[in-house]
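Dear support,

I submitted the protein below through the web form. The confirmation email said the job was done, but the results page showed an empty box. After a refresh the structure appeared. I'm attaching both so you can tell me whether what I see now is the final result or a partial one.
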Amino acid sequence: MMKTEPERLSSEKLRSLASAAPPCISIVLVEREARDARIAFKDALAEVHAKLAASQSKHDIASLLDPLKTAASNVIDSSESPATFIFLRSPDVCELFRTKYLVGPPLVAVGEYFHLRPLLAVASKHLEFYILALKLNDTRIFKCTDQSCEAARFPEDAGTEAAGFIPGASQSSLRAEPVHDRDHPENHLAHFYREIDRDVNAPLKDGHLRWSL
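What the results page shows now:
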């Protein structure tokens, strides 16, 4: 299996990598141009070969390294800008990653387990978060990562009691405004925030938000 962009690594995927059968080969080449990455990978592969030859592993070295060599060449040669390359190889795993992020020092290791810290560093870059933009009659929520920001479209039944919402289509904003209570003027903003809290949390909890393109 091969990946070129570690955009989203599930916990299940990381657990499967953590439990891979040895020998586990980990190679990290940091911020390399394609030409430099080819040279660095060749040197790393020679180091891995020497470590495997010196170990008591019963696995055939060529069967481990040849698929990695072919796959890595394709990934490196297709890189058009400086990148960090992460290669993981074991008898049952062949995973290759390319990312623009700096994930730590270069690494060449053969052991009982993969070195997953570089992948965890990349995965942390793709955490999702939300931004709530409050404005009278035009409250919006945005789903963001470090690379993107997309406006949500709320389901047709979203909308506050004060909005006078007309059903029939999804909406990109919540049409809410503070309710002015002459007897309790200090509560009008509190009512506004309660309405927003209700209408934002309900679709987030149920996963009903649709993202605009």
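Response: this is the final, complete result; the empty box was a page-load delay. The chain has two domains: 11-124, 129-211.
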